[in-house]
Write a structure and sequence with these properties.
- The protein is of the alpha+beta class.
- The protein is 26% helix and 43% strand.
- It is built from three helices and seven strands, in the order E-H-H-E-E-E-E-E-E-H.
- The chain has helices at residues 16-24, 26-33, 129-152; strands at 3-12, 38-45, 53-58, 66-75, 80-88, 95-107, 110-121.
- Strands 1-7-6-5-4-3-2 form a seven-stranded antiparallel sheet.
- A hairpin with a 4-residue loop joins strand 4 (66-75) and strand 5.
- GO terms for molecular function: abscisic acid binding; protein phosphatase inhibitor activity; signaling receptor activity.
- It holds the Pfam family Bet_v_1.
- Residues 1-153 form the Bet v I/Major latex protein domain.
- Belongs to the BetVI family.
- This is Bet v I/Major latex protein domain-containing protein.
Length: 157
């Protein structure tokens, strides 16, 4: 099975634990700050820990309607989180799954949000470069929107 990997890194002035805390509330924040991308995110099974399954309903700004994802790993002490999209039209008929690993690492003056996305292909067909470029921009813009929300709500984050 072939795959394509995308790396996203976004520096932040926030400390790593604060960034991770904000992203722990992604399901609530994302539909508020980017409703055109994330219409809703709902837990269908579990309590948020490893094994939890969530349903994403996408907004009009993305070419997909819905997807299911599963929480694969969660390590709060190391500010890391892994999950996989396992079902939905975002797999484009050519992917078995899309695996994500998020890690927020401390850096001088803040932290770096690092996200590795692995597109696990069913066969030889892979996502187009243009698609991957747009995906990377979407992930970076999503990060920035979530961070801006946190900056506007310092009492919570």
């Amino acid at each position: 099975m072939s795959s394509v990997t995308l790396e996203v890194e976004v520096p932040s002035t926030f400390p790593a634990d604060r960034v991770f805390k904000v992203f722990s509330d992604f399901d609530t924040i994302a539909p508020k700050v980017l409703p055109q991308v994330f219409k809703s995110i709902e837990i269908v099974q579990g309590n948020g820990d490893v094994g939890t399954i969530k349903t994403f309903t996408f907004g009009d700004a993305v070419p997909f309607t819905s997807a299911k994802y599963k929480v694969d790993a969660l390590d709060v002490s190391n500010n890391s989180y892994s999950y996989s999209f396992i079902e939905g039209d975002n797999l484009m008929g050519i992917l078995d799954s899309i695996s994500y690993h998020v890690k927020v690492v401390p850096s001088e003056g803040g932290s770096v949000f690092k996200q590795t996305i692995k597109y696990n292909c069913k066969g030889d067909e892979k996502p187009a470069e243009e698609f991957l470029t747009k995906e990377k921009e979407l992930y970076e813009n999503t990060y920035k929107a979530i961070e801006a929300y946190a900056a506007a709500h310092p009492e919570t984050y």
